[in-house]
């Protein structure tokens, strides 16, 4: 019913920037908190950023704070992740996810999210 599509990541040199997008179809996008998660090779999935349905609450993992920016355009049913000052450690598959609980809150826990995108590869080279 609700589907998330991530057009694609890419390759970027350390210190560079990349912008990810995630478009939603079905449901009511403006009612959902949206999150970004990532999974590096051989590691567990980890929280990156979340924005609540109204955009009034934003949280970041400490590892990306000050470098990444999450935003949303409800009219376009799209959430973005602007990644600056990229490091090799940022290399991972990045996933967007939707929390369908219809509240104005948020969660940094992946188990709270109901719908996930297929993921997009981001590779940062030195």
Describe this protein's structure.
By secondary structure, the protein is mainly β. Helix content is 0%, strand content 47%. The strands form 2 sheets. Strands 2, 4, 5, 6, 9, 10 and 11 form a 7-stranded mixed β-sheet that branches. A 4-stranded antiparallel β-sheet has the order 1-3-8-7, with no helix packed on it.
| Straight-line N-to-C gap | 40 Å
Mean pLDDT figure: 96
How many helical elements?
A: 0
What is the share of helical residues? under 10%
Offer a few descriptive terms.
mainly beta, 7-stranded mixed β-sheet, 4-stranded antiparallel β-sheet
Please give the structural blueprint.
Blueprint: E1 3-5, E2 10-13, E3 18-25, E4 33-39, E5 46-51, E6 58-60, E7 68-73, E8 78-83, E9 92-99, E10 115-116, E11 120-125
Parallel strand pairs: 2-11
Antiparallel strand pairs: 1-3, 3-8, 4-5, 4-9, 5-6, 7-8, 9-10, 9-11
Concise overview:
This protein is 0% helix and 47% strand. With 126 residues, the chain is mainly β.
């Amino acid at each position: 019913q609700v589907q998330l599509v991530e057009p694609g990541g890419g390759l970027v040199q350390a210190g560079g920037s990349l912008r990810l997008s995630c478009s939603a179809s079905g449901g009511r996008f403006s009612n959902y908190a949206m999150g970004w998660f990532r999974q590096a090779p051989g590691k567990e999935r980890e929280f990156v950023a979340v924005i609540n349905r109204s955009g009034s609450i934003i949280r970041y993992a400490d590892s990306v704070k000050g470098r990444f920016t999450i935003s949303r355009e409800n009219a376009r049913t799209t959430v973005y992740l602007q990644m600056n000052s990229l490091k090799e450690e940022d290399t991972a598959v990045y996933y967007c996810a939707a929390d369908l609980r219809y509240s104005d809150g948020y969660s940094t826990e992946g188990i709270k999210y109901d719908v996930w995108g297929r993921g997009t590869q981001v590779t940062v080279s030195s």
